[in-house]
Amino acid sequence: MPPTAWLLPLMLAGLDGPGLGQDVAPGPAPRLALGAPAQPVPLSLGEARARAVRGGPEVLLARQRESVSRAQIDTAAALPNPTLGVQTASVTAKLTASLLQPLPLFGQRGTGIDAARADAEVARLDIAAVAVEARLGVTAAWLDLWAAQERARLLALAAGDAARVAEIAHDRFATGSGPRLDEVRTTGERARARAEADAAALAVPAASARLGVWMGDGAEARWQAAGTPAIGPLPDEARALQQLFERHPALRRDRAQALAATQHVRAEQRARWPIVTAQLSVAADDPTTPGTDVIAGLSFEAPVLNLRGGPIARARAEQSLAELQAQSELRRLTAQLGDAYRQSEAAALRARALTNDVLPALEEALRMTEGGYRDGRVDLLRVLDVQRALLESRLAALEAQATWQRALAELERAIGTPVEEAQ
């Protein structure tokens, strides 16, 4: 191709297009091809908890940490490599081969393996402890999503109530039985209620995204809290306290951590003993000797200047820290257990009172005031007061129900197992 052949297409294209200095009409702005938003996938509380415990991000990280700790056992069990040497001399042996093999004969390798196994056991028990936190986190996230959905539903009902009263006020004004002020006031109330309902609906996708984090899902996944939250009945407090002390994963992990620290103290103390090095040398073709000379011997490090005082002191400090941490964790969980019991009892009492007593009375009052306002026997302010009281009570009942379930989730965290297993 000639060097100027590429100019021809540009020149031909310029014949049909605008010239230099000519205005170009702006074309339509490019639009991104966005797919339709994914439909929410129904997810019950039990399914969400099972997914988080089985494959949540924190649980997967804990399992990976266990794999690293298991690999450390092989590292501790590995023997040191031998050292091979070859020498030559101009006067004596033409060829001298030597072999040096360090031998941990005084238990250094065994105590190191025991310490690595203890660390691996801590990592294994940490998986269950992390699963407890994952269960609490996903439960709280699911409850937030459920509460957001219910709040949007209740505000949509309130918007419907406001629209219905606005229609009544409009009909009364149209027939001359009601003032223009009532129509204006109810129109504003209807707009306010609809805005609150729309804002609550927008909060649902955000709560869905927070739930997906605990299950390791991407930002594109959308979830819908299906069913009603029912973690389980309240277990016996004395039995729950006993189960906390005996089986809580965090306490078992901390106790294993204290035992592992003890193993590390023993390993550091054993490391003070010298490593024996076996030596073997073979000298061949030496004119000063009648034949091949074989030399064998042992050497070891003299523990005089370094008795590993620093590493031993650090291991003992870590042992004391692990023991104090286990005691502190026991006191914290015990206090958390009592607090969760009181919180769950108070929230359950409030939720039952609002659901069984307050809401039916206010719903009946709303029907009566709306009927009275339609007939002209009740003024508008009383209708609006009952509407607002009913909405506030519905939202309070929703929050009480969510608080009750959150308290039960905190109780599960304190016990270390689901409440249905603590019965």
Describe the protein.
With 423 residues, the chain is an alpha+beta fold. It has a single domain (41-80, 107-272, 311-422), classed as Outer membrane efflux proteins (OEP) (Up-down Bundle). The protein is 66% helix and 9% strand. It has 9 helices and 6 strands; from the N terminus they run H-E-H-H-E-E-H-H-E-H-H-E-E-H-H. The chain has helices at 7-16, 45-55, 57-77, 108-175, 180-214, 237-247, 249-270, 309-375, 380-415; strands at residues 41-43, 83-87, 95-103, 223-225, 276-284, 293-300. A hairpin with an 8-residue loop joins strand 5 and strand 6 (293-300). The chain is elongated, with a radius of gyration of 38 Å. Residues 1-36 have low confidence and may be disordered.
Record keyword descriptors for this entry:
Outer membrane efflux proteins (OEP); 4-stranded antiparallel sheet; two-stranded parallel sheet; 9 helices; disordered N terminus
The main pleated sheet reads as: 4 strands, antiparallel
Q: What ranges have pLDDT less than 50 throughout 5 or more consecutive residues?
A: 1-36
- Beta content comes to 5-15%
The CATH superfamily turns out to be Outer membrane efflux proteins (OEP)
What's the short story on this structure?
Helix content is 66%, strand content 9%. The protein is α+β, with helices and mostly antiparallel strands and 423 residues long.
